[in-house]
Amino acid sequence: MRWSRFYIPTLKEAPADAEVVSHKLLTRAGMIRKLTSGIYTYMPLGLRSITKASAIVREEMDKAGANEVSMPMVQPADLWQESGRWDFYGKELLRLKDRHNRDYCLGPTHEEVITDLVRGEVRSYRQLPMNLYQIQTKFRDEVRPRFGLMRGREFIMKDAYSFDKDQDGLDESYKAMYAAYNAIFTRMGLQFRPVEADSGSIGGSFSHEFMVLAETGEDTIVVCDSCSYAANVERAEILCSGEECDALETPMEEVSTPNVRTIEEVSGFLNAPATAFIKTLLFDADGEPVAVLVRGDRELNDVKLKNLIQADTLEMATPEQVREWTGAPVGFAGPVKLNIKRIYADNELRFATDWIVGANKADAHLQHVCLKRDVELTGYADLRVITENDVCPKCGKEISLTKGIEVGHVFKLGTKYSESLGCTFLDENGKDKVMLMGCYGIGVSRVVASCIEQNHDENGICFPPPLAPFEALVVNLDIKSDEVNDKVDEIYTFLKEQGIDVLVDDRKERPGVKFKDADLIGIPMQIVVGGRGLKNGILEAKDRRTGEKSELPVEGFAEAFKEWKEKVYAGWNIG
Ligand code: ATP
Ligand code: MG
Description:
Elements: H1 21-28, E1 32-36, E2 39-42, H2 44-63, E3 67-68, E4 74-76, H3 77-83, H4 85-88, E5 95-97, E6 103-106, H5 111-121, E7 130-139, E8 154-164, H6 167-187, E9 192-196, E10 207-213, E11 219-224, E12 230-232, E13 253-256, H7 263-270, E14 278-285, E15 288-295, H8 302-309, E16 314-316, H9 319-326, E17 342-346, E18 355-358, E19 364-369, H10 371-374, E20 379-381, E21 399-414, H11 416-420, E22 424-426, E23 432-434, E24 436-443, H12 444-454, E25 456-457, E26 460-461, E27 472-476, H13 482-497, E28 502-505, H14 511-521, E29 525-529, H15 531-535, E30 538-543, E31 549-553, H16 557-570
Parallel strand pairs: 3-7, 15-17, 17-20, 27-28, 27-29
Antiparallel strand pairs: 1-2, 4-6, 5-6, 7-8, 8-24, 9-10, 10-21, 11-12, 11-21, 13-19, 14-15, 14-16, 18-19, 21-24, 22-23, 25-26, 29-30, 30-31
Helix pairs in contact: 1-12, 2-6, 2-12
This protein binds adenosine-5'-triphosphate (ATP) and magnesium ion.
C-alpha cells in the first residue's frame, strides 16, 4: 500500500473535546473522524486496526465452537416488553417509531433477539449446546460519550450467546468462552486481567470482566498480591471481623452544630476524627426510601446496596425528599428515630460504638450513639467500597488497587431471558425445560482505543503488531532517486513475500514530516531507505516501541531483517 494513495489525514492538534489519550491520538493519526457526539467514522487506517481485532476475535470464537450470525440492529419493542426490559432499560436505549407508529429500539445488546431466534429454532436437547455470535454495531445513548472510541454511542461489539440444557452445560460453555477471551487478548498483545465482576441481581461468581490495565481506566480493580484473586471494586467483598460492640453507658446527647453539614466540617467543629462519625445516606429505591449507614471516612458502594435491596432503580434522595423523610435540611440526617422502614448499616459499624450522627434537626448532631441501643436497624451488610488498607477476601493478605478498562465481559445469565421469553426445549424424557443462557461481549472498537491507552508515548501510538494497521512502514526519503525507489520496491516485495502488511511512505514530503507521522501512527517496524544510507550499504530500522535504531545491511538484508523482526516482536507479549 502506498501512502500517497491511502488516505491518512494526520493532524498536529488534538480535538478540543478530547480528554483521553486514545481519543487524541486516534484523531491525530487520521484513524477516526467525529460525525457527532459519540459517533465516529472509522477512517481507512482506523478501520484496518478494527478489522485486525475482529479477525482475531472471529478466529478464536470459531475455534471455541461458536457460529457467526448477523442480527438486525433495529429491534421491535414487543420483544423488549416480553422480557420486561422496555420499561426498565434507561435512557441508553434509543427508541424510535416507524410509519405505523409502532415502537422500536436500536440494539444496545441482543439478548431478546437471540432468545426469540433460538426459541423458534431449537426444539430438542439434541440441538444443544448452541453458541451464536456476531460482530456488529451497537447503539447506546451514553450520558457522557466523551472518550472517543472508548465510550462511544455507536460502537462495534462482538456479542455471543450460549444455550445449554443444564447447569453443567452452561458451566462448560462459560469456561470455553473464558478460555477463548484469554486467548484473544493474549494474541492481541495486550496486558490484561480477568476479574470477578458484579453479577447484578443474579449474584454469585457468575461474571468476569476482562480488563486492559491502563492508568486511564475508568474501572478500579482489586488485585491480591499473594493469591490469584482479582475483582472489580464494585464487587470486591470486604472481610470484617472483631468483637461486637453493643453496649454504651454514656447517654446519648444532642450537640449544637450550627451551619456545619459535611463530615469534614462537623469533624473540625467537634474536634473528632471522621472515623467517629456515621454518615447517613438516603436513597430513593424504586420509589421507596432507604437509609444506609457507613463510617464517616468511608464510601458507599452503591452496586452492593442495589444488589442487597434488589432495586431496579436507585437514586440519591433529592433535598426535598431529605426534608420530607428526616424533617431536616440536607446535612443533618441520622439513624436515631428516623422514620424510614429500611435502615442498613455497613458491617464494620458492628465492631465499634459511641458514634456521632446527624440529629434529623437543623444545626444539630447527636453524640454517644450506640446502634444496638439507640437505632432500629433492618440489618448489617457489606456496603462500603474496599480500600487499599483492606485485605484480600480470599486469603487475607495485602491487596493493591489498579486501574483497568473493561474490554470484555462473560456472564452466566441462567434463565433470566429464556424464562421470560419462553425459550424451552424437550429433554431426554420428553419434558419441557427452560434453556440456560450465557452472554459474552467484547468491545471491538474499545479494544483498539484501550490498546492505545496502554501503548503510546509523547510522539504517538506504539501499536502491538497484531493490532497495528500495518506491521511495517517503509519510508522513502528521496522519491526523485531511481536507486532509492528501486530499493523501496524491492523491500516492499520482499516484506510482502514474508506475509507482512506493509505501508510505503512515498509522499512528496520532507523527511522530518515523514518521521513525525511515522511515530504518530505507530506502526511497529519502520525501515528508512535514503540515498546516503544506500551509499554506505545500509538501511535504518527503528523499533517504534523502544525507539531503538538498528542498521540493516543492504547485502544480506533478508537474514538481517528476519533477525531484527524477531527482536521487535519478542518485545511484545503476544503469547
Ligand atoms: P461499561 O461498564 O463500560 O459501560 P458495560 O458493562 O455496560 O460497559 P457490556 O454490556 O458488558 O458493557 O458490553 C460488552 C462490552 O462492550 C464491554 O465489555 C465493553 O468492552 C464494550 N462497550 C460497552 N459500552 C461501550 C461503549 N459505550 N463504547 C464502546 N464500547 C463499549
Ligand atoms: Mg460489562
